[in-house]
Amino acid sequence: MKQLITPLAHVPGLLGLFRLRTVSAVVAWVVLAAFGPLVTGCNYYRTKTQPADKETVNLLAQSKTFVVHQGSTEWVLRQPHFNGEALEGTRESATGTLAKYSELPTGRKTPRYLSKDKKVALNIVHVYVNDAQPGTGDQVSIPFSAIKQIDLVEKDSGRTTASYVLGTLGVTAGVFALLLVIVALTKSSCPFVYAFDGQTYHFEGEAYGGAIFAPAERDDYLPVPALQPKGNQYRLKISNELKERQYTNLAELWVAQHPAGTQVLLDQRGQVQTLTAPQPATQARTLGGHDCTAQLQAADHSVELFSEDLPGHAPNEVVLTFAKPAAARHGKLVLRAQNSLWLDYLYGRFIEKFGAAYNGWAAQQKTQPAAVNRQWALDQHIPLQVYVEAGQGWQLAETIPTVGPLAARDVVVPLDFPASAAGTVRVKLACGFMFWEVDYAALDCSPNAPVQLDNCHLQSARTERGDDARAALRAADTLRLKQLHAGTVVDLTYETRLPAPAAGMRRTAFLHTRGYYEHVREFSGLPKLTELYAFKKPGRFVAFSKEEYRRASQQFAPAIAQR
User: 19-52 burial by CB neighbour count: b if 16+ within 10 A, else e?
Assistant: First the structure.
């Protein structure tokens, strides 16, 4: 622990603050306060559409509370029963605890309930009607033909367990606080990027994630939406805040000028893709049959976790169905995605198994052909793979490398559609158990719009020591910026040659980096050879993820049992 406590003056940005003893103590109390509500607090729920037939309604009427949605109003139907072709009962307003759950969450609201409300929240059936006839007093009669949809509320067990046990980002504030401290002490990822908005710096994401060891050096195209110019100048920072050595070969700022109604993204190869009419999926289902369509409709932090604990070592999958123009043969899939902190934790658990032999293994990896480690990652389902359904089955369209767990980013994948695809196209996302989080998915079939793209001039690159790093960052060559310990940072200033945006135009910026990094670890003890050899088998990392998940679940079982 001593090695992690570094003077604040030498540790910039997001994580440096948490390595101070005084701040850590304060955060610990905050975490305890935040964790208390988790032990006695929230669970997640979802709705499941039921057949709108008499048999189903009769069965649900015996034990459930009917919340009727008629237009923009909601009310409760007490003592529901069928009388011929009409559903009858007593109409009353939702009050007390029931009122909190009578309206389904929309927008950015999170579908969850308190433990003390369980009997009410999980006892609701939402009935959607377009007609209801008033009777004597509070009596009401609903023609059976007027019932359009029936949604049964049920506990979302997978997401609830994930929120308590694994605490992925964007689920609950308490677990986020807890994980932020854990990340501050154990995070093992990649360089952090900060963008200046004219007043302050914002954390934007991580560069060349997963490029561990020199053979894995790769290009990365990070959107930096917070970046704003001062005149024609842009300012960024790249910092090392972790126990690792970072080698950045290239750092270019690309600025696109384009119509304000168009979104611009760079794909995995740095090619410009424009989006003017992205359409969410009409249906999204997991391999186990869970409908996650609503979760992927908007970037609202309601994410698909790929958390179904299915038998075997195969990856988790989500199949998306999109509407498309019948004549379209090309499109662009846009995802808002990030890796999970769970994957970061798993990798740490994996390399711990090397014990005192870790540094020897790490030295060997520096000479390993890049293709070998790339294939291992594919065999373990660590990247996010995108497939398009064609006449011969699923065709691989793209393999998305890890992007880091601390910030979601927009990713675009160009797609070619089979000639047989008429009005719809199906896309599949696949990855290991809880390795990725996807917040949003949409398909855009519009042609790419004209874009002015400027590779901005690198005016200055100053390290924390005041050294000039421009020569190391201007081109992909043998020179690299070496950030060899936590606390190193480079301040970058770029100048664009683009004219000021005219009315109806705007700019979008991307940081194009190339590099790799190495973890600094001081493990002890003998390597666990039998366990390590098992990781040579395809899918072993998926099985390892499930084993660790179950182990963590058992540790938290007493707290979960209280819900």
Answer: bbeeebeebeeebeebbeebeebbbbbbbeebee
Q: How far apart are CA 250 and CA 233, in angstroms?
A: 19
How many CB atoms lie under 10 A from the CB of residue 88? 17
pLDDT tens-digit profile of 443-452? Answer: 999 999 999 9
Most confidently predicted of 89-93, 367-371, 397-401: 397-401
Distances (CA, A) of 438 to 301, 376, 379, 447: 9, 23, 21, 25
Instruction: Please state, in angstroms and rounded to a whole number, the distance separating the CA atoms of residues 64 and 51.
Output: 15
SS3 157: helix
Give residue-wise pLDDT tens across range 217-243: 999 999 999 999 998 999 999 999 888
Question: Which value, in Å, is the radius of gyration of the alpha carbons in the chain?
Answer: 26
CA pseudo-torsion sign 432, 435, 438, 442: negative
3-state secondary structure of 248: strand
Cα(28)–Cα(11) distance, rounded to whole angstroms? 20
Q: How confident is the model at residue 40 (pLDDT cuts 50, 70, 90)?
A: very low
CA distance 356 to 392: 49
Q: pTM of the predicted model, to two decimals? A: 0.71
For residue 236, report the phi and psi dihedrals to the nearest 5 degrees: -140, 165
